[in-house]
Amino acid sequence: MSSMFSIMKPDLHGCNLWQLDGRPMSGDIGRGATREAVAFAVCLARATDRPPGFLQLAGGTNAHAVDYLKKEGLFQETSKASLSCNIWHMSVSIEDALQDRDMDGPPSSWNSPIGGIAYGGYARKIVGRILNSMQSEFGLAACIEDHPEFLREALIEALSLVGTVKCYDLAFIHQN
Questions:
Q1: Crossing angle for the helix pair 148-166 and 121-138, nearest 10 degrees?
Q2: pLDDT tens digits for 23-82?
Q3: How many CB atoms neighbour CB 64 within 10 A?
């Protein structure tokens, strides 16, 4: 990874997000897929020569990803009230951290190197179930925006998946 970074470094500006593509899981819902993706993230997060910036999990991520990241100490919970960022917990605002960043290493105010989770196939699979149900009832040309009950169900499923990452109050979503 260091040789790749040394080639790219002159062209990198700002805070970078490095996507860690595990192997494609095609929406696998099992814990094993996530365990492998998180193990890869753990190796890179602990590497002393990793490039500056955040890591984003991809390939093998599903509903178990946040739990495994928490077990490994790579997921920092925060509330929307205290922070406008998503996963990482910072002792300073994101604007201040980016302004004072050190491009040769991660800023000391960042407690977690994980900056995102790409759900890909898993997200398509859970929302696809709802779309298939809607199309079974209303035909293949049905548009989800024309069927608020299905749109609401799809949004609840999607928010249940990303809500833990984005710090959404899921109780409020399920009430309304």
A1: 170
A2: 666 555 677 778 888 998 898 888 888 888 888 998 888 888 888 998 998 887 654 433
A3: 19
Query: How much is the pTM?
Result: 0.68
Q: Give the SS3 label for residue 133.
A: helix
Contact indicator for 41, 74 with CB cutoff of 8 Å: yes
Whole-number Å distance between alpha carbons of 111 and 25: 29
- Which two three-digit tokens encode residue 105? 């290493």
Spatial separation of the C-alpha atoms in residues 57 and 13, rounded to whole Å:
21
- Kindly list the strands in the beta sheet with 114-117, ordered across the sheet, starting from the edge strand earlier in the chain: 17-21, 54-58, 114-117
Amino acid at 150: F
**Going by C-beta distance under 8 Å and a sequence separation of 6 or more, which residues neighbour residue 17?**
53, 54, 55, 56, 115, 116
- How far is 43 from 21, CA to CA, in rounded Å? 13
Partners of 21 in beta bridges: 58
The number of angstroms, rounded, from the C-alpha of 24 to the middle of its chain's C-alpha atoms is: 16
Give 65's contacts (C-beta < 8 A, 6+ positions apart).
34, 37, 38, 57, 117, 119
